[in-house]
C-alpha cells in the first residue's frame, strides 16, 4: 500500500484554488505573469544578449524621441503611456540619467541665446520672481497648516512650486533632513502638476493671444520644473524659449538663499547647501555665443542637441510617473500643490497680461 505523501512547507501553506462548479470551467487567474504580460517579461536571446519585449518597447520609444518627429509633449505622453501600461524596465538608469541630461540640455540651450537679451529678460522677471517666491512660501505655510500636513512636506511642496520643482525639492530635502517618504510625496505632487502644465499652457497662451515675451515669462513663473518650462516655451516659439529659460534659471539661483533660510528656520546645523552649478555653465555658453564670433557655427548644433536631450528627459520623467507613484501621494498634498499652483498661475497671468 502506498504511503501518503507529506506536503512540503510551501504546499502546506499555499491554499489550492477552489474547484469550479459542475459544468463550468475555472476562469484563468489574470496577473502580470500570465498572458500578454508574461510575453512582455519573458527573457529572450538574440546576438548573445538577453532581453525582454518590455525592454524592446522602451528602446523603440526612446529612439523615436531622438527623431525630429518627437516633441517635448509627445515624449512626456509616451513616457506616461509606458508607465501606466507595461512599466519602465530601466527605472534605476533613467532616474540617474534624468538630472544630468537636463543639466547638459540647459547648458546647450545657452549656445542659442544672446546675453544682452537675457539681461533684459532677467530685469523684467526679477520683481515677479521675488514676489511670487515669498508669496508662494507664505501661502503654502497657511494652507498646509489648514490641511494638517507635516511641516517638512508643506515646505518641500511650497519650495518646489515657488522655485524650480524637483531641483528645489532635491536641494532643500537634505537641508531639512527630510525622510524618503516626505521627499517622495513632494516630488510626486510636483511631477504630476508639471505634466499637466506642459500640455495645458501652450493652448492657453494661444487662446489669450499672448506674445512670445509674455508667454515665456508666464512659463518661468507658473510652471514648476525647468524641464517642463523649457518644453512648454519651446512649443510656443524661440523667443518664448529664450525668455523662459533665462528667467527660470535666474529663479533657480534662489535655491541658495532659500536653503540657508530653511536651515535657520528649522534649526538644522551642519548641513550643506546644494548649489546648482549647471546654471553657471548656461551663463558661460550664452557669453561664448554672444562675444566669440568663431563659436557662432557651433550654436545651432548645440541647441539642436539640447532640444533632443530635453525631449528624452521628459520621456524619462513620464516613464517614472507610474500609477503607483500617483496614488501613493494621497489627496492632501495634491490639494496643497494645486491650490498653490492655481494661485501663482492665475495671479501671474493677470499681472503679465496687464503690465508686460
UniProtKB/TrEMBL annotation:
Keyword field: Cell membrane, Membrane, Transmembrane, Transmembrane helix
InterPro entries per UniProt: UPF0324_pro (IPR018383)
Transmembrane spans: 56-81, 101-119, 125-146, 153-173, 185-208, 215-237, 249-266, 275-295, 301-322, 334-353
Membrane topology: Multi-pass membrane protein
Subcellular localization(s) per the UniProt record: Cell membrane
Pfam families: Cons_hypoth698
Assigned GO CC terms: plasma membrane
Region feature (Disordered): 1-25
Cited PANTHER family: INNER MEMBRANE PROTEIN YEIH-RELATED (PTHR30106), UPF0324 MEMBRANE PROTEIN FN0533 (PTHR30106:SF1)
Family: Belongs to the UPF0324 family.
Protein name, per record: Conserved hypothetical integral membrane protein
Origin species: Hymenobacter daecheongensis DSM 21074
Amino acid at each position: 500500500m502506498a504511503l501518503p505523501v507529506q506536503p512540503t512547507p510551501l504546499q502546506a501553506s499555499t491554499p489550492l484554488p477552489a474547484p469550479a462548479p459542475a459544468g463550468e470551467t475555472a476562469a484563468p487567474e489574470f496577473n502580470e505573469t500570465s498572458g500578454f504580460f508574461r510575453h512582455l517579461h519573458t527573457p529572450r536571446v538574440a546576438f548573445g544578449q538577453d532581453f525582454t519585449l518590455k525592454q524592446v518597447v522602451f528602446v523603440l520609444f526612446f529612439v523615436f524621441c531622438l527623431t525630429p518627429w518627437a516633441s517635448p509633449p509627445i515624449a512626456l505622453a509616451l513616457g506616461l503611456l509606458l508607465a501606466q501600461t507595461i512599466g519602465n524596465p530601466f527605472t534605476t538608469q533613467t532616474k540617474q540619467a534624468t538630472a544630468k541630461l537636463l543639466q547638459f540640455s540647459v547648458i546647450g540651450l545657452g549656445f542659442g541665446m544672446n546675453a544682452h537679451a537675457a539681461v533684459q529678460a532677467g530685469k523684467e522677471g526679477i520683481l515677479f520672481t521675488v514676489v511670487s517666491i515669498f508669496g508662494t512660501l507664505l501661502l503654502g505655510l497657511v494652507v498646509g497648516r489648514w490641511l494638517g500636513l507635516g511641516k517638512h512636506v508643506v515646505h518641500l511642496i511650497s519650495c518646489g512650486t515657488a522655485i524650480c520643482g524637483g531641483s528645489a525639492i532635491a536641494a532643500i530635502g537634505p537641508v531639512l533632513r527630510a525622510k524618503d517618504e516626505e521627499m517622495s510625496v513632494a516630488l510626486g505632487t510636483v511631477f504630476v502638476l508639471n505634466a499637466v502644465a506642459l500640455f495645458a499652457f501652450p493652448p492657453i497662451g494661444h487662446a489669450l493671444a499672448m506674445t512670445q515675451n509674455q508667454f515665456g515669462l508666464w512659463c518661468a513663473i507658473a510652471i514648476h520644473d525647468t524641464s517642463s518650462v523649457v518644453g512648454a516655451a519651446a512649443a510656443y516659439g524661440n523667443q518664448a524659449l529664450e525668455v523662459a529659460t533665462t528667467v527660470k534659471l535666474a529663479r533657480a539661483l534662489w535655491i541658495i538663499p532659500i536653503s540657508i533660510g530653511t536651515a535657520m528656520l528649522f534649526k538644522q546645523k551642519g548641513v550643506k547647501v546644494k548649489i546648482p552649478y549647471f546654471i553657471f555653465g548656461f551663463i558661460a555658453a550664452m557669453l561664448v555665443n554672444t562675444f566669440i564670433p568663431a563659436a557662432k557655427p557651433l550654436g545651432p548644433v548645440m541647441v539642436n542637441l539640447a532640444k533632443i536631450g530635453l525631449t528624452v528627459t521628459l520621456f524619462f520623467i513620464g516613464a517614472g510617473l507610474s500609477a503607483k507613484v500617483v496614488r501613493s501621494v494621497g489627496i492632501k498634498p495634491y490639494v496643497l500643490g494645486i491650490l498653490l499652483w492655481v494661485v501663482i498661475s492665475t495671479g501671474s497671468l493677470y499681472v503679465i497680461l496687464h503690465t508686460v
